[in-house]
Amino acid sequence: MPKTKATPDFILIMTTLALLTVGMIMVYSASAVWATYKFDDAFFFAKRQLFFAGLGIIAMFTIMNVDYWVWRKHSKLIIIICFLLLIVVLIPGVGLVRGGARSWLGVGAFSIQPSEFMKFAMIAFLAKYLSENQKNITKFKEGLLPSLSLVLVAFGLIMLQPDLGTGAVMVGTCVVMIYVSGAKLSHFMGLALIGLGGLAALIISAPYRIKRITSFLDPWSDPLGAGFQIIQSLYAIGPGGLMGLGLGESRQKFFYLPEPQTDFIFAILSEELGFIGGTFVILLFSILLWRGIRVALGAPDLFGSLLAIGIIGMIAIQVMINIGVVIGLMPVTGITLPFLSYGGSSLTLMLVAVGVLLNVSRYSRY
């Protein structure tokens, strides 16, 4: 293993902290009204977000100094533990049900979402598998099929919760990693047709998913039902204009947009900070993507490169889906916006992942 650089990627660190700061401000601004009404404490969600942000920052800077090959060594154990947690969370009375999905383990407000950690476990395991079997990746049975089979088993367990959004991010990230490692495009085209058929079956099997699709195509066909969230999101973004209504001046957070501190926090940000504020956040994510790609390209080995690609791919896919939903370009999926949305498991996982990326950057040629 090459000697590490004196410092990790400074721009990557500062961009992450900038996103985290914007997120802390917006979580408080978006949640204060609802938190006051429900808990008689305007800082209820902000305090918890601050706790997990602090925990995540400590983890990020700690993991930044841990050789990334540790994840290669223990990837099998990590993914086994995550599979067990995905099974345990499905047991009635053990897994906590929130928003119609049995996705949580824990007590009260302090709980974890195993599917979030499965995303990183799958990235680490696939990076190891693909780096060790690159010569077979162009072969369907020997290379592509085993890796995709494992991904689909994890996706199936996540769908039993059900949590299509998290499952979609995990599958999308893994497909990016497999393709970058050298898989044939022709194989993906054939699998894409099968995947579309499977996706159609998943949508048809659940009436609420059909409603989400129809509401995406025409939200105003059911303005008080399936189309309610996207309509209220657009009502938030539209009045924001160029400069926004001002920090803390959102109207939609007054019980119009449901729980605006989570999946639709970008709508509140756009309402209060306008087009300029939204563009600034997207620019920060773009810088994060750029630095992550540089780290992947400069990694000293294939494992480090695939690990970095997986992490930055996970973040990029989640950002695109979340913002796409908020502005009405995609059906509602229930995915948080990395570093900004309220949520302990998601925030901690993202900061841990950035810590791993920062460690890879210490070995990067760039």
Protein topology:
Blueprint: H1 10-39, H2 44-63, H3 69-88, E1 96-98, E2 101-107, E3 110-112, H4 114-132, H5 140-159, H6 164-180, H7 185-205, H8 207-217, H9 228-240, H10 265-298, H11 302-326, H12 344-361
Antiparallel strand pairs: 1-2, 2-3
Helix pairs in contact: 1-2, 1-10, 2-12, 3-4, 4-5, 4-6, 4-11, 4-12, 5-6, 6-11, 7-8, 9-10, 10-11, 10-12, 11-12
Protein described:
The chain is mainly α and 366 residues long. It has 12 helices and 3 strands. Strands 1-2-3 form a 3-stranded antiparallel beta sheet. Helix 2 (44-63) packs parallel to helix 12. The longest helix has 34 residues, at 265-298. It is globular.
Shape: globular
What is the mean pLDDT? 87
Q: Helix count?
A: 12
Unreliable residue stretches: none
Structural class: mainly alpha
Tell me the strand percentage band: under 5%
- As laid out across the biggest beta sheet, the strand order is 1-2-3
**How many DSSP E strands?**
3
> N-to-C terminal Cα separation, in Å?
16 Å
This entry's quaternary arrangement is: single chain
Main sheet record: 3 strands, antiparallel
Estimate percent helicity: 55-70%
Over all CA atoms, what is the radius of gyration?
20 Å
The SSE order reads HHHEEEHHHHHHHHH
Explain briefly what this protein structure is.
With 366 residues, this protein is mainly α. The protein has helices at 10-39, 44-63, 69-88, 114-132, 140-159, 164-180, 185-205, 207-217, 228-240, 265-298, 302-326, 344-361, and strands at residues 96-98, 101-107, 110-112.
